[in-house]
Amino acid sequence: MEHLHLPHHHQEGPELEVIKSHLAQAEYFQPAADAFKQLSDSTRIRIFWLLCHYEECVINISSMMDMSSPAISHHLRALKSSGLITSRRDGKEVYYRAADTAESQLLHNVIEQVMQIQCPK
Amino acid sequence: MEHLHLPHHHQEGPELEVIKSHLAQAEYFQPAADAFKQLSDSTRIRIFWLLCHYEECVINISSMMDMSSPAISHHLRALKSSGLITSRRDGKEVYYRAADTAESQLLHNVIEQVMQIQCPK
DNA sequence: ATAACAATTAAACAAATGCTTAATTGTTAT
DNA sequence: ATAACAATTAAGCATTTGTTTAATTGTTAT
Predict the structure, then answer these.
(1) D26 C1' closest Cα residue
(2) With the CA atoms of B65, B68, B70 and B72 taken in that order, what torsion angle do they form, in degrees rounded to the nearest 10?
(3) How far is residue B71's CA from residue B65's CA, in Å, rounded to a whole number?
(4) What is the pLDDT of residues A19-55, one digit of tens each?
(5) Calpha distance A103→A6 (Å, rounded)
(6) pLDDT above 80 for B72
(7) What pLDDT is recorded for position A12?
(8) By CA distance, what is B63's nearest residue in A?
(9) Is residue A84 within 8 Å of A48, Cβ to Cβ?
(10) pLDDT for B23-67, tens place per residue?
(11) Which residues of B touch A7 (CB under 8 A)?
(12) Above 90 in pLDDT, residue B89?
């Protein structure tokens, strides 16, 4: 098995080969990048954080976020299709909440940890 | 102190008020959203992950990523100005590596955890 | 000094993103 | 049935993002 040689040789050893081959598998990183993309928008990260704490209907989310319901609906759709939140209809209303998954819980923790690091208090 | 009333009343209690007031402080979420934005691009998340493991120069990063150096340079600039990586010049080359900060380490861990969740093996 | 190499910056452009308004679908109450 | 309310979808648009090519800056060796 042949190695891809780098223009410069600063590092050595078998570990470098492991890193390089892992890095070449771009698809390994896609799920993480996709999750981060969902939370990279400040509106969406706040919605997600809210839904980690409370189940809410669209109108109330719109009210808390002070945004139009079409705008909120758009963000909810993105979060839902990425699997971070779920929804259920009850009468005229649709209620959203964070998905009960390891990924969702992990991301919720990270959000709070980053806030802790950046806004200690 | 007066509460902002929601259109619908599904939940009750003082906790809801805490959630609402925290949510209203959009700036609390900005650092987390900014960090996630950096890692929301699949090229950038791979570069960051690499630099958590090895210090490397731009040419070698370009080679491993199979992309032009201007493109890589742009991404490095973004990562650096967000504080996730640092650089040092040595002769003609500029070496980059992950910043030695709590935030950087946290995000590195999360990337690997999400990969673990999504690609168990 | 000048040539060669490494890295960055600039300009240009296509693609993606987030929001708005308007129209549509779904559900409930009269 | 029809009116009212909740939510979604569609169309349009301005802004942002990621890349390319070309030009520029910085460093080292001859």
Answers:
(1) B92
(2) 0
(3) 10
(4) 999 999 999 999 999 999 999 999 999 999 999 999 9
(5) 35
(6) yes
(7) 72
(8) A6
(9) yes
(10) 999 999 999 999 999 999 999 999 999 999 999 999 999 999 999
(11) 59-60, 63
(12) yes
CB of residue A26 closer than 7 A to nucleic acid strand D? no
pTM, to two decimals: 0.94
Q: List bases in chain C with any atom under 7 Å of a protein Cβ.
A: 5-10, 17-23, 26-28
Of B53, B110, B114, the CB nearest to A19: B53
Tell me the one-letter amino acid at B3. H
Reading the block at residue B62, the tokens are 């370009």
Q: Which of A5, A22, A44, A46 to mutate to test binding with chain B, by most B CBs within 10 Å of its CB?
A: A46
pLDDT given at position B12: 73
List the A58 CA – D6 C1' distance (angstroms).
8
Is the CB of A87 less than 7 A from some atom of nucleic acid strand D? yes
Domains annotated for chain A, with CATH where assigned, are 34-114 (1.10.10.10)
